[in-house]
Amino acid sequence: MGSKAVVSILLMVSLCGTIFFTQGVAEMQKPPTFPGLFPPGSPVDLVKCWSSLFNVEGCVLEIAKSIFSGKFENIEGACCKAFSALDANCWPQMFPLNPFFPPLLKDICARIVPNSPTHN
């Protein structure tokens, strides 16, 4: 048997072994968690926080567009009312990458809907 054949067989065996080993290790590991984003036992229910925005048609899309474009003039009053009614404890969990966005949106919503509370 030539040296090329031996190298090919060893390469094939090592590749198969690596594939089966990594699959076995992957099954043993638990899925990754993001401790900063969703800490275990968090008192804030993210489903409850987001559901109030999802209940207003197009609200989540309007907020997403305003995040990426920086333009807030397209947010409607119903969406502002829903956002203004959110518990302030929801904000860090809902917008962990931009902590300045919720107070900014709440201040803008106070102008769109005059009787909505401003951010404290």
Automatic annotation (TrEMBL):
Residues 48-109 form the Prolamin-like domain. This is Prolamin-like domain. One of its GO terms (biological process) is regulation of double fertilization forming a zygote and endosperm. The keyword Coiled coil does not apply. The keyword Signal applies. Residues 1-24 form the signal peptide. It comes from Arabidopsis suecica. PANTHER family: EGG CELL-SECRETED PROTEIN 1.4, EGG CELL-SECRETED-LIKE PROTEIN (DUF1278). Keywords: Signal. InterPro entries: Prolamin-like. Pfam families: Prolamin_like. GO terms for cellular component: extracellular region; vesicle.
